[in-house]
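Subject: design request, 214 residues
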């Protein structure tokens, strides 16, 4: 029977056809299927570990930070152990980057681009190098948005309804970028602002400590 037949050649019964599924957005993880998240910058008794929770406070994942030869690495894991993805920072470069991986491979890259020595922008590219998102707002204060190249809102990062001091909220406004990638993007910015003031970071990243507002 050929794939193009809509009716059975023997009895004439109409055959069911399956529609091709749309491609998944950048990255994928069923753990990150919610609209709102809380990121705790430090989990008690767990050194250099972030916690990703839903709005009710239920823990969804750990993000464990390690340093390997001056290169930060972040491992996304469920509370019971399985790894969800990782992010690799490359800071000793002319243009520092954070590469975001899910279990299938590279899904996005966060890049810092200097603009005429007057400031800098961190933006998100897909694996082919196409820009898919950028930051607008104050990274240091965790008050910024992630926008598409057209200016559409993808996510909002702020502290409007968190009660824990070292925490902030990530609100997903669009599925144009997978929530896992959006959360990794926010954590990369968290790491960047946390290191502002460190001489080695300022040399490597070329920052002045002034909050970014594009």
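Subject: RE: design request

Done. Sequence follows.
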């Amino acid at each position: 029977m050929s794939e193009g037949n809509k009716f059975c050649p023997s009895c004439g019964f109409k055959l069911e056809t399956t529609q091709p599924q749309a491609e998944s957005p950048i990255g994928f993880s069923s753990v990150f299927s919610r609209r709102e998240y809380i990121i705790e910058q430090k989990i008690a008794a767990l050194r250099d570990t972030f916690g990703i929770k839903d709005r009710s406070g239920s823990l969804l994942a750990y993000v464990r930070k390690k340093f390997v030869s001056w290169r930060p690495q972040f491992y996304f894991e469920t509370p019971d152990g399985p790894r969800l993805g990782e992010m690799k920072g490359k800071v000793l470069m002319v243009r520092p980057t954070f590469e975001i991986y899910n279990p299938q491979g590279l899904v996005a890259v966060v890049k810092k681009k200097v603009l005429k020595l007057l400031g800098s922008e961190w933006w998100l590219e897909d694996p082919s190098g196409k820009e898919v998102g950028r930051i607008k707002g104050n990274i240091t204060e965790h008050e910024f948005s992630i926008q598409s190249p057209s200016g559409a809102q993808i996510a909002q990062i702020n502290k409007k309804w968190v009660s824990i001091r070292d925490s902030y909220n990530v609100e997903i406004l669009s599925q144009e970028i997978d929530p896992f990638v959006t959360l990794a993007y926010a954590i990369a910015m968290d790491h960047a602002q946390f290191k502002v003031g460190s001489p080695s970071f300022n040399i490597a990243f070329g920052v002045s400590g002034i909050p970014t507002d594009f």
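Confidence is low (pLDDT under 50) at residues 17-25, 196-214.
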